[in-house]
Amino acid sequence: MSFNAGVFTADFWGTAQRNAVIMAANKTGLGSVAHKVTQCILVMMWVFIGIEGASVMSNRAKKKSEVGSATILGLVVLLILYIGASVIPYGVLPYKVLVAAPKPAAITVFEHMLPGFGGAFISWAIIISVAGSWLSFTMLPAEVSSMMADHHELPAKWGELNKKNSPQYSLLIVGALTEIFIIVATFAADAYTFAISMCTVTIVVTWAYAAAYQVKLAKANNDAGQMVIGVLALLFQVVGVLFTGWGFLLLACLGYIPGFFFYKQARDAEGSGIVKSEVVLAVVIAIAGIISIPLTAVGIIPVF
């Protein structure tokens, strides 16, 4: 309703010189083209974290068909919201005002549209949104941990359910680890960048495995179309994480080290034990994680 086509189209293309002057006035560099591209890839992967939520909770769905419908519906709704939130503000306030606006810029935009009320409204909306995200990011890893326990990849205790049919032990572990992550992020030089980088590289590992499985399944079914999609998805995930956060990927390997011991405990209890290839892979990942410690200390991996 507040969108103004005149504001949106005014100096639509701009010039590199004008943009540089505005950015310099706000002590923000334009950066290289390569930097812009990699940052866009990082943010693009970050904003879609959670799109796999319906699949993770699929065993609780009344009908399996709802899983696919929920995933597609979620993707479409996210696209509409993200495109709208990214484009519409440029029809409300000039570019130079948005660049100078304190983060989150949505507060400035809403305060302009609804003076005295808009800023407070969107601030409360952000709090509610974060609370909802926190809830979902507590449920999803707890559910995954519970399913891994069912498949003997984590100790059986991780899959124990309380009277509400929720994995209580996994919820406690997830809650504790979330608190540790928030404390570390608080002391990071750039908490937001640290958070999105760590979250993105860790989730991309699982997405890459999902894409690799699609390639394997397509090959087994002789489905060339799905094979092409799977290969493209796998390449995007691998290249994306290498270009945007290889250092954070090394840092994330630290988090896998305790998991190896839990995995061994679960396999031993099940009676199958772990094989040589798994030991080799665990050692390689552990070495990568240990390497990240001095790289972080000297600032090559920008955390503190």
Arithmetic mean of pLDDT: 86
Shape: globular
Decide which structural class fits the backbone.
mainly alpha
Radius of gyration, in Å, reads: 22 Å
What amount of the residues lies in strands?
under 5%
Poorly predicted regions: none
Number of helical regions: 12
Main sheet specs? none
Helix share of residues?
over 70%
Distance between the termini: 43 Å
- What is the strand tally? 0
Order of helices and strands: HHHHHHHHHHHH
Task: Give a structural overview.
The structure is a single chain. This protein is mostly helical. Helices cover 74% and strands 0% of the residues. It is built from 12 helices and no strands. The protein has helices at residues 5-9, 16-25, 33-47, 53-56, 65-87, 95-100, 105-113, 118-150, 168-186, 191-221, 224-270, 276-297. Helix 10 crosses helix 11 (224-270). The two termini are 43 Å apart.
What is this structure's SSE topology?
Elements: H1 5-9, H2 16-25, H3 33-47, H4 53-56, H5 65-87, H6 95-100, H7 105-113, H8 118-150, H9 168-186, H10 191-221, H11 224-270, H12 276-297
Key attributes of the depicted protein:
mainly alpha; 12 helices; single chain; 304 residues
Quick recap:
With 304 residues, this protein is mostly helical. Helix content is 74%, strand content 0%.
